[in-house]
Amino acid sequence: MGMYDEIKVTYPHKQLKKYKNIRFQTKDLECTMDLYSIDENGILFLGERAKRKLQKKDQLETFKQDIVSYRRLVKLRNNPFFTSFFKPKEVYYKTYIKSWKKQSHTGPLKFYTHIDINTKKLPKKYRWIEAECLFFKGKLKSIKVKDKLVEYENYN
Fold first, then answer.
1. CA distance 47 to 35
2. DSSP 38
3. Which domain holds residue 9?
């Protein structure tokens, strides 16, 4: 499977409009778990991340969740060597996008995602969305979108 990057698309393409709040995956860029964006004008941007310390109340809540997870680990694996790597942290940080940097990518860019369709009927289905773009110096030149309904092969 490996690492990938995510792309958020706000470009007004008729087939992508309904997926405005969905992040797509791609392996055509750096594959360093970065977040990219294609804006309304078709320009490719890279989100530059920063981190900030969580507020005391948020730190306490996150710490409580970590304690619960840690206790579960201790119960599951009563092995001090194993659990010593998973102790709760003392300080918690949250990452966020502090700025967007314009990219000069030239060449093809393919991104994709799938969306489960909630249905109680078998076979289960999902929607597969795939887009193939062509960029020149960071500007979108063409885009082709495939949107199809697919059945899961193994559903248990």
1. 5
2. E
3. 5-51+96-151
Full-model pTM: 0.70
Please check whether residue 156 lies inside any domain of the structure.
Answer: no
Q: Token match 């001090």: residue?
A: 80
Distance CA 46, CA 101 (A): 5
- Whether residue 146 contacts residue 129, with contact meaning beta carbons closer than 8 Å, is answered with yes
Contact 132/110 with Cβ under 8 angstroms? yes
> Does residue 107 come out as left (phi exceeding 0), alpha (psi in the -120 to 50 range) or beta?
left
Highest mean pLDDT among 16-20, 44-48, 77-81, 86-90 belongs to 44-48
Give yes or no: residues 72 and 106 share one domain. no
For the segment 120-144, what is each residue's pLDDT rounded down to a tens digit? Answer: 666 678 889 999 999 999 999 999 9
Q: Do 44 and 100 belong together in one domain?
A: yes
